[in-house]
Design goal:
heterodimer, A: 571 residues, alpha/beta, Rossmann fold, 6-stranded mixed sheet, 4-stranded parallel sheet, B: 490 residues, 3 domains, disordered N terminus
Chain lengths: 571, 490
């Protein structure tokens, strides 16, 4: 039963062994490295960003999904053209729930899915002509500022030169046209697509417009994709604090905003995995330092705001930020006090993305829930263990396939945002730049950390921990729920959200309360079905509605009778 | 303009910004400033598909393999194909859908994916112990010319006692999910059916319908006392109950032993108007040619006439009349149509989606006096237009537009001209319905903005009854919502 977690919580070492023992030796050897017991003081090495074994059903997507679907798709006034047969374009058509609120007069192409829909003869004779014609059509129809082209698997194989087609189209049409070689087979997951997208956006958009925003304290939010309206909430909070958000990469963002985002004075990184490349390249070329932030969870949001204020070091800003935090925390207090008693002590597990499985732990902790296990789909070791392990990560053949841009300081536009003395003073005060500590340092000792979890492991995890909730994506959602445990999707938010900052936290608390405490989880087994033996599939052990002592006179007879007579006789 | 707050609300949608602006195509090779170098309009066929009204062929294959008992669908290609198709099927069926993949890496595209395929098959066999693995190819495997049947044959020979391995070729650049579906049904039958002594059972090949449709079809056939092999049968696998314990493969589906015996059946009922013609290379035709099983091609039983024809066929096979219960169901439907036709008569409808579904609905709408003014399919089929004309039987509207191989952008352009009162389509018709301010009645696949897409009943008298009530009530609700006085007695 999902609402009665195992007490005491099982030994994670035992759970790990239960997961591993079903595997043949070779698979076991690989999975052993990807399932580790946590130590927050000295995170153990975890196997991550390695190839998925063929035939193991995985949560992971492909390079195209990471590039077109995740990083670039949310730029709302670019016309995106998927070059390839029909499937990939269709599947990435509005499926990520990244919302946009274009300014008046701006165009929004997010509802639009353009595809070259390659047919057999074009696979044989090449699709460059068709692509060129599609670009012209897109231009003729919309006159967009920019057109972006994405290659799917067959394109790389037949050797269509999409970059040349893009360059010619750019000359011909006089607008920005650029292409991404993000064929699905490159890399081991969508992570490769993030890197390719970062490179392309950096090369083709960032730095095209040197006009700075007029506001004070200019920052960019990197790695925030505005799922369910998170970026709207973050922007609103920053506005209250008097901080100017030049661009959010990539959520609710226009081409023009990205073109001038190098004029900001600080990059704040939300999802380290998908966008650290951009942060590093912008720092090298333009001198913008980056810090890790997290706007998921009230405490983390407060911490992130304070960090931004401390960076600028202006007393007026610091005071204003403190006032906003105090107000928001006060507004949140009633919700936490109401919800927490119903959630406290329950167990949760999170397996999602490359940063969300870390960020969302804060919200659960604020409800007093315990994270027994967590893991990413496509993260690398640094997202688990922290960036200090970067020098020790072996670059394998798959990662080598992805281009590393050779970036240098821009002779005209590089400007150090802070003097060496200022930086030293900040760092002396405990301020860290260009750093991400990773998920493990913030998790409990001996919590189970599982990279790229498989179905089998998920099944074992549910049976042994009986968590009250599992967070993952739509592909796992219904498996988890079939087994009687509520599942919160943290990719699409189950059509809910926003969950970011203080206002979003209130939404999340309420939703988790509703999910873990709804009555349906206690009704999965029909009352006439025999109660399973103790120890057999405990997830489904039906619980009597009330104990004998608590039963009201009206229900006393029924509550303790194992077989309701009415149903039994009519059957 | 108030800023919209969600993606689905962020209209005006892109293609509305410049409606009717003459499409201009710059001349080739004009460089520099020439923003619009010539005024030449874009002619059909267009190079780009804009908001496709079709999905890729491997998706159809995966649906079929999901409807075979203890069978795991497997895609030979990049893992993204399996992931994308899973997430799309799951958002419609709201059920677990497991599709394995050979997870090609860059070097496999150079040296071939046979090693990955064999490893993947071994892992699926080990983890799931399935009876069958259905291996569909993707663009990637087809483009590099993988000989999947040979690899499977060798792998099967080296691993005797393992699962049956069924290959099907489904590159997305040749046909759509509908083609992938029918091709896979045929491949499955070819693979399993073995010479069998004649028996009393019938074969029923329903096409890509909903799990609720499959359940109802089984119920109807059973009412005539006919033993039946329904292929595929994903009525449980893609719309199942909660599990008492973890299921590696969803319970349900057509048993492979039943598929083996399809060759001895009394007849094959093959549903789908577009499969009626002589050109279609279907499973039913193969069973007829190879095993002399009589083929009875029928339209999908949507609406009164096509369901009557289906019942007549069942009656003929069972050598019995239509059971009383079903006759009463028909009676209630006709009674309702008489009672309610005043509300729907003369309404104009736009329908788009999979060809056979559109043809079936078109036939039904014609029966209740709704005039189809736009019938469109994303799958290009020569049989589509003649079929629409045939079911309308000279009663078609003067301005009826029929499009085949159309995308949603083209469908929307035509819909703006013909001004329908109602739209019937998948969830992908929502932006158009919103723009035209007309109701959308969701049918077919995918339905991802409402719950219960897997339980939509399209077929039989009961399906027609549900649709009829839904159509009438949708019209009444719209009228009521828009009336100034707010009548509650209609």
């Amino acid at each position: 039963m999902s609402d009665t977690p195992r007490n005491p919580v099982p030994d994670p070492a035992v759970v790990r062994e239960e997961m591993l023992k079903a595997y043949p030796a070779k698979t076991r050897k690989k999975r052993e490295k990807q399932i580790v017991l946590n130590d927050p003081d000295a995170p153990p090495q975890i196997g991550a960003n390695t190839r998925t074994i063929p035939g193991i059903i995985t949560q992971r997507g492909c390079t195209y999904a990471g590039c077109r679907g995740v990083v670039i798709g949310p730029i709302y006034d670019i016309v995106h053209i998927t070059h390839g047969p029909v499937g990939c374009g269709y599947y990435s058509w509005l499926t990520r729930r990244n919302l946009a609120r274009p300014e008046e007069g701006q165009t929004n192409f997010m509802q639009y899915c353009m595809n070259t829909d390659m047919q057999e003869d074009e696979i044989i004779f090449g699709g460059e002509k068709k692509l060129a014609a599609a670009i012209r059509e897109a231009y003729a129809l919309f006159k967009p500022k920019a057109i972006s082209i994405y290659a799917t698997c067959p394109i790389g194989l037949i050797g269509d030169d999409i970059h040349t087609v893009a360059r010619q189209a750019k000359e011909e049409l006089g607008i920005n046209v650029f292409a991404f070689s993000c064929e699905g087979y490159k890399g081991v997951s969508q992570s490769a697509g993030h890197h390719i997208a970062n490179n392309g956006v950096f090369k083709n958009i960032v730095g095209l417009d040197d006009t700075p925003d007029s506001g004070e304290y200019r920052i960019n939010i990197l790695g925030e994709y505005n799922i369910g309206g998170d970026a709207f909430e973050i922007e609103e909070l920053l506005r209250k604090c008097g901080i100017t958000c030049t661009a959010t990469l990539s959520g609710n963002v226009s081409y023009d905003q990205i073109a001038r985002c190098h004029t900001a004075d600080l990059n704040c990184v939300m999802c380290h995995r998908s966008i650290n490349y951009m942060a590093e390249m912008m720092e090298t070329k333009y001198g913008i330092p980056w810090i890790k932030v997290n706007f998921i969870g009230a405490e983390s949001t407060a911490k992130s705001l304070r960090k931004i204020a401390a960076y600028f070091g202006d007393k007026a800003l610091i005071d204003r930020v403190e006032r906003v935090i105090a107000q928001e925390m006060l507004a949140l207090k009633a919700t936490v006090e109401e919800v927490r008693p119903r959630c406290e002590g329950k167990l949760a597990a999170l397996f999602v993305g490359g940063s969300r499985a870390h960020h969302y732990q804060d919200l659960f902790k604020e409800l007093g829930m315990q994270i027994v296990s967590a893991g990413y789909e496509f993260a690398h070791r640094d997202d688990y263990e922290g960036r200090d392990v970067l020098p020790t990560i072996k670059v394998d053949a798959d990662s080598r396939n992805i281009e590393e841009l050779d970036v240098e300081a821009d002779p005209q536009r590089f400007k150090a945002r802070r003097s060496p003395e200022q930086l030293e003073a900040l760092q002396a005060g405990g301020f860290t730049f260009s750093d991400y500590e990773g998920m493990m340092r913030e998790m409990d000792r001996r919590a189970l950390v599982i990279d790229d979890i498989s179905h089998h492991e998920m099944d074992q995890l549910i049976a042994l921990y009986r968590p009250s909730i599992v967070c993952c994506g739509i592909k796992e959602k219904y498996i988890v729920e079939k087994m009687g445990v509520p599942c919160k999707q943290l990719h699409s938010y189950d059509y809910g959200g926003p969950y970011a900052v203080f206002t979003g936290a209130a939404n999340f608390y309420r939703e988790i309360d509703r999910m873990v405490n709804t009555r349906v989880w206690s009704m999965i087994m029909p009352p006439w079905q025999k109660q399973p033996e103790l120890g057999a599939r405990p997830v489904f052990t039906p619980k009597p509605r009330r104990s004998r002592e608590e039963a009201s006179p009206a229900t006393r007879g029924r509550a303790v009778r194992p077989v309701p007579t009415e149903t039994a006789t009519t059957n | 303009m108030n800023p919209p707050t969600t993606a689905t609300l962020s209209i005006p949608i892109a293609w509305q910004f410049q409606p009717g602006v003459p499409d201009a195509q710059p001349a080739l090779g004009v460089a520099g400033e020439g923003r619009i170098a010539s005024e030449a309009p874009i002619h059909e066929p267009r190079a780009a598909t804009r908001n496709a009204c079709k999905v890729c062929a491997p998706l159809g294959a995966c649906v079929v393999f999901s409807g075979i008992e203890n069978c795991v669908p497997f895609l030979h290609g990049s893992q993204g194909c399996a992931t994308y198709i899973r997430r799309y099927l799951i958002s419609h069926f709201r059920e677990p859908v497991d599709i394995a993949s050979s997870s090609f890496s860059e070097e496999d595209t150079v040296f071939g994916g046979a090693r990955n395929l064999r490893l993947g098959l071994a892992n699926v066999a080990g983890q799931y112990t399935p009876q069958a693995i259905g291996v569909a190819t993707t663009c990637l495997a087809e483009t590099i010319g993988e000989d999947v049947p040979r690899i499977l044959a060798e792998h099967g020979a080296a691993n005797s006692g393992g699962p049956e391995l069924v290959p099907v070729s489904t590159p997305a650049y040749a046909g759509t999910h509908v083609d992938g579906f029918h091709r896979t049904v045929r491949r499955v039958v070819e693979h399993f059916a073995t010479p069998t002594p004649p028996h009393a059972g019938i074969n029923l090949l329903p096409g890509f319908v909903s799990p609720e449709d499959l359940r109802h079809l089984k119920e109807l056939v059973a009412a005539f006392g006919l033993p039946c092999t329904l292929l595929p049968d994903y009525s449980d696998t893609l719309d199942g109950a909660s599990w008492p314990e973890y299921q590696r493969v969803q319970p349900g589906g057509t048993p492979t032993r039943a598929i083996r015996r399809m060759s001895g059946a009394r007849a094959t009922l093959e549903l789908g108007h577009t499969l009626l013609g002589s050109g279609a290379d279907t499973a039913g035709r193969w069973l007829h040619q190879t095993h002399q099983v009589p083929r009875m091609p029928l339209a999908l039983p949507i609406g009164l006439r096509e369901t009557d024809a289906f019942m007549a066929a069942l009656g003929e096979l069972a050598e019995s009349g239509c059971p009383d219960d079903i006759q009463r169901e028909r009676g209630r439907l006709v009674d309702a149509m008489v009672d309610g036709h005043k509300y729907v008569f003369g309404k104009r409808a736009a329908l788009f989606g999979d060809p056979d579904l559109v043809i079936g609905l078109c036939s039904f709408l014609d029966e209740i006096g709704v005039r189809p003014v736009l019938c469109a399919s994303g799958t290009r089929q020569a049989a589509f237009e003649p079929a629409i004309r045939e079911v309308l039987d000279h009663s078609e509207a003067d301005d009826l537009q029929i499009l085949t191989g159309a995308d949603h952008a083209r469908i929307s352009e035509v819909a703006r001209e013909v001004r329908p009162d109602l739209i019937f389509s998948s969830s992908k018709g929502y932006p158009l319905a919103r723009e035209l301010e007309v109701p959308l009645i969701r049918v077919g696949f995918p339905v991802h903005d409402r719950i219960g897409g897997q339980r939509l009943l399209h077929v039989g008298y009961r399906g027609a009854q549900r649709f009829f009530d839904l159509i009438v009530n949708t019209i009444l609700e719209r009228r009521q919502d828009r009336s100034e006085t707010g009548y509650s007695y209609l």
